[in-house]
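Bug #2210: token dump truncated for DNA-directed RNA polymerase subunit?
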Amino acid sequence: MFVMSEIEHTLRLPPHLLNRPLNVAIKGELESLFLDKVIGKLGLCVSVYDILSIDGGFIFPGDGASTYTAKFRLVMFRPYVGEVISARLEESTKDGLRLSLGFFNDIYVPVPLMPNPYHIEPDPEHKNGIKWIWEYMGENYPIDWTDEIRFSVHSVNYPPLPIEQGKDSEQKDSEEKGLRQKDIKPFAPMVITGSLDADGLGPTAWWV
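Reproduced locally. Full output below:
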């Protein structure tokens, strides 16, 4: 689930940080640049583990900051396909489930990867919510909000940044634009698709 990635990056060190030990100042800048950010194909950065080398210290004309090239290692959240992880329920709709690890919330279990057979019911405790219920040997096994849920990683994707299709949208009525934006989900630079359709997966209470 967590891996180490070695990266080289050139960065500016502002003058007000030059009174600090170089390693401390560089690490602080690297954390502001990479912490909680997704790096394509590498995953979500959860920590700057260590700094391997620092070169440079050049001050370019007209710039009071020093420029350094640092080589360092990051701890990345990047689960592998087939890995089994425990999460909590974040959202339950007719399209499936959204799960959360606390520090990462873009985990989706679509309908084809839900345990089969199943049926769904309205969730009276959550407006527009759906309760998914697995049917097994004549018994019903619901997925509740308090459950710890084990899922298998089906895929990990890094969607490209969305590109605006022209400027026509700027000329549309502001109310219509507001309604349209309400339906658009925030862009997720990293998306995990999970599966519950196998023995041992789903709420841990099912398998006690």
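Output looks complete on our side. DSSP finds two helices and 13 strands in the chain. Marking as cannot-reproduce; reopen if the truncation happens again.
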